[in-house]
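Milestone 3.1: sequence recovery, worked example.
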């Protein structure tokens, strides 16, 4: 059946034409009254319009009309009607033919429109079907994706974690490589892009082992390297504690800068204390060698030097002077120059050793004579005798070609003995010679500097301006009760030039604890040790803030400085000091007595007595000590300030009163 349907549809036009012809022949040939069947032609024309379109329908109608006219012409009698004019018949057939053509055109046009809409509908239906299929596929894919999303997220997370891990490992390797070849501060500044080539004031240290060459020649290379690494491993922590930059290792020698690349105000103090601690450690560990240390301070050019392989270093005359000081230094000594002494003389004991030329001299006899005279001049007390010695020292400097140094000593002698004729003449002649020599460039010009041996750190307990003799005699042995190593606090104190502060505060707090009625030795010892480490948190405070007066700090900076007590507790925990009582004392040692700025709990319960004691002792020692931004106060002025602070609610009045009674000797005594 379907096959016949396909054949019919495929040959519809031919079959239609055949049927039309047959129908016309039948109508026009066999039916005598053709006019009665003339409207029959509308059927095939309309069918043609529906099935074949406008063109075929119009053509079919035209041929039908033509055929009717032919029959009309040939057989007019078949179309005639009674009492009708033949012309009317032609007009009637013409009108009929026009309507037939119009019917074919209208039906065909409407059918074409309908076909186009049907086609568009089919196309839209096909597109919708395709979209439906795509949506089905997407829905299936989305369903699969949603079902596997968690797995994919986990897989992606693992991939990202592995990528991050590899990046972190690469970063660690890079940083480890950089840290193994450069100082950590240099690496950080390089990474941050803040490392600059600049001229700045630094202290340069040279250290060298005496007898290491002979030691190494008698032992295997493996043993020598092992011992050398052990020595360097013992020295490096000291450099790091005092913020020194290890410039380079030169066999058994070390070059180190203080004050670069990070700028510290007390770079000279940090360098000298580091040198003392190095010598102290050498003696304590009983190495088979001795060490010489030379430290010079001054202006130097610092920065990365090199093309492909770069290193951070210092360049300048101060480097040469430091090396010279180390060369002339005796084993076990720390030797410094004048400019270094200016920054540390408040904190360390020194003695003049000799005048050191910046360059080696071939006249060793004159050099020895000069050292002897300099030592005699420094020890002489009678002005005339010292002036004579300065005159002789000046003449020896002239013999060594050091006119500038000669003038300096001649001038010192004239100040001591204004009537010394020989000194005046020598000064005048040397001034003329120096003026003439200054007109030309003198190659290899020499200059001599004074060299001082650092003997040790001064005992602040011997400062009678703050610690009276009667108090010292009673409590001098309390220092021996402190079991926390001094090396924990010295690096912190060197940052703001408060050497010995922790010791004084600890002893004063111990004495105040007894005066305030604390009888238990355990509690007094807790206060002693809490006071000793109360300022350990200062190492996390920006050092430039520590070296400024409190009145010059804004509110945020002041709050940052005050937070060092909280940071101090964290540091103590990391160091293994887990005593809760010590943590309480340190945390609240800088709280105001009236509770201003303290946590709500403290306002209700009150600040612990030990913390109030430490606060007063800390303030007293700070006011009676020198700081980079001010001179120290006398004891009575410090107590006046403490009383003002009591009125402001900062300190416990009973503790201030007890401290005054401890330090101010009775009138009867």
């Amino acid at each position: 059946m379907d096959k016949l349907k396909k054949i019919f549809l495929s040959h519809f036009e031919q079959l239609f034409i055949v049927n039309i012809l047959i129908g016309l022949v039948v109508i026009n040939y066999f039916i005598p009254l053709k006019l009665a069947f003339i409207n029959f032609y509308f059927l095939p024309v309309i069918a043609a319009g529906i099935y074949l379109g406008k063109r075929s329908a119009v053509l079919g109608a035209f041929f039908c009309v033509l055929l009717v006219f032919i029959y009309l012409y040939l057989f007019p009698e078949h179309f005639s009607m009674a009492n009708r004019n033949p012309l009317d018949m032609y007009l009637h057939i013409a009108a009929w033919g026009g309507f037939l053509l119009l019917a074919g055109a209208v039906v065909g046009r409407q059918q074409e429109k309908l076909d186009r809409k049907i086609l568009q509908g089919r196309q839209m239906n096909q597109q919708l079907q395709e979209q439906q299929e795509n949506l089905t596929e997407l829905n299936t894919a989305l369903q699969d994706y949603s079902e596997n999303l968690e797995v994919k997220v986990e897989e992606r997370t693992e991939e990202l974690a592995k990528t991050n891990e590899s990046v972190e490992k690469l970063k660690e390797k890079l940083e480890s490589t950089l840290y193994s070849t450069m100082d950590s501060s240099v690496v950080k500044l390089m990474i941050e892009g803040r490392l600059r080539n600049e001229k700045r004031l630094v202290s340069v240290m040279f250290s060298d082992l005496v007898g290491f060459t002979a030691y190494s020649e008698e032992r295997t290379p493996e043993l020598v390297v092992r011992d050398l690494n052990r020595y360097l491993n013992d020295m490096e922590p000291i450099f790091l504690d005092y913020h020194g930059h290890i410039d380079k290792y030169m066999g058994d020698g070390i070059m180190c800068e203080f004050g670069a690349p990070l700028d510290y105000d007390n770079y000279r103090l940090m360098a000298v204390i580091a040198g003392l601690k190095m010598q102290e450690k050498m003696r304590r560990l009983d190495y088979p060698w001795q060490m010489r240390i030379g430290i010079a301070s001054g202006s130097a050019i610092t920065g990365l030097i090199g093309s492909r392989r770069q290193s951070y270093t210092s360049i300048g005359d101060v480097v040469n002077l430091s090396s010279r000081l180390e060369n002339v230094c005796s084993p076990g000594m720390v030797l410094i120059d004048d400019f270094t002494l200016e920054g540390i003389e408040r904190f360390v004991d020194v003695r003049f050793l000799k005048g050191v030329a910046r360059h080696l001299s071939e006249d060793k006899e004159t050099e020895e004579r000069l050292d002897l005279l300099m030592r005699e001049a420094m020890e002489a007390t009678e002005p005339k005798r010292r002036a004579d010695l300065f005159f002789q020292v000046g003449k020896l400097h002239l013999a060594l070609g050091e006119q500038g140094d000669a003038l300096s000593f001649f001038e010192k002698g004239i100040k001591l003995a204004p009537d010394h004729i020989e000194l005046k003449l020598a000064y005048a002649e040397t001034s003329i010679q120096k003026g003439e020599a200054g007109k030309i460039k003198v190659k290899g010009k020499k200059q001599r500097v004074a060299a001082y041996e650092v003997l040790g750190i001064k005992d602040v307990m011997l400062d009678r301006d703050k610690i009276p003799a009667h108090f010292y005699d009673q409590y001098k042995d309390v220092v021996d009760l402190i079991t926390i190593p001094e090396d924990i606090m010295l690096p912190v104190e060197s940052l703001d030039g408060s050497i010995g502060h922790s010791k004084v505060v600890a002893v004063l707090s111990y004495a105040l604890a007894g005066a305030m009625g604390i009888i238990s030795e355990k509690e007094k010892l807790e206060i002693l040790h809490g006071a000793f480490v109360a300022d350990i948190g200062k190492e996390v405070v920006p050092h430039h803030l520590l070296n400024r007066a409190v009145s010059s700090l804004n509110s945020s900076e002041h709050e940052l400085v005050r937070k060092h007590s909280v940071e101090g507790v964290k540091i103590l925990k990391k160091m293994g000091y887990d005593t809760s009582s010590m943590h309480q004392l340190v945390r609240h040692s800088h709280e105001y007595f009236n509770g201003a700025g303290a946590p709500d709990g403290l306002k209700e319960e009150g600040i612990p007595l030990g913390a109030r004691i430490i606060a007063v002792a800390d303030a007293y020692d700070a006011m009676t000590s020198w700081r980079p931004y001010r001179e120290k106060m006398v004891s009575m002025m410090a107590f006046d300030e403490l009383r003002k602070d009591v009125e402001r609610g900062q300190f416990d009045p009973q503790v201030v009163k007890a401290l005054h009674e401890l330090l101010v000797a009775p009138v009867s005594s």
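The CA atoms of residues 506 and 528 lie 5 Å apart. Confidence is low (pLDDT under 50) at residues 437-445, 599-605.
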